[in-house]
Records
---
Amino acid sequence: MWSLRKIKASDVDFVLAQQIRTAVFVQEQGVNVLDEYDAFEEVSQHYLVTVDSKAVATTRWRFTPNGIKLERFAVLPTYRGEGIGKYLLDQVIEEVQKHSKPIYLHAQIQVVDFYQKFGFEKEGVPFEEAGIQHFKMLFKQ
């Protein structure tokens, strides 16, 4: 059974979100740990997905001058392909839409198709962030 919880960087369970992000971004993708954790941790709304009480996915969003930026979507490798990423994205979009601001994200090239299925559209040209090619994508639905 999946469960979604909102957490803050000050919560004791934030360490679980950090462990997921470290596993996915730092260990799997080679992102520098200094790039992964930034000054926006405290002002972001974080989420943690658990499966049978095990933390398996996380994300965050925050307000920016351009609207609401969705960031740091991470699902542990052994839980990919089960719909957890879709579930997490659906829940976050539902929550942030109530703010009536533009919603956007920076998608790694290999997951652009995933986000397009949810109404995100590419904007501009690819760019590098943390050593990985990305597209800015805007939510259009």
---
Amino acid sequence: MTTVFVIDASVVVKWYLPEIFTEEAEKYVHPSIRLIAPDYLQVECANVLCKKIRNNHLHFMEGERILNHLLTSRWIEFISTQTLIRRTYKIANDLQHPFYDCLYFMVAIQLGKPLVTADRKFYESVKNSDYSHLMVWVEEPPRME
């Protein structure tokens, strides 16, 4: 049986760049786990790579390799950001949290599946809301259905 998780960029970048919680994030890459995200994830990950290059924490060619892998891999199912904008607008205002993070959360709400994040501020913002049941901190092991 396949378990579905919505995943955000804070988790995905850890698969490519060793950081705190990399080992925990890698547990969500498993044959029995289906990962879904808004296609905005690609933009956000590309931005992180550019920032790492600017700060001399990543070589350009390695960043390009990571980006190419992310853009051509089929291990994350992407949902069009355009289809999420109207509904995300309300959630972002309800949660008083940045719109771009709430795009991921809107996918979780639409699907009724948990969102895995390594963004502590985002996690805390949602954990104190009516939607807390849909938020998973990256350190929590994947619960298989």
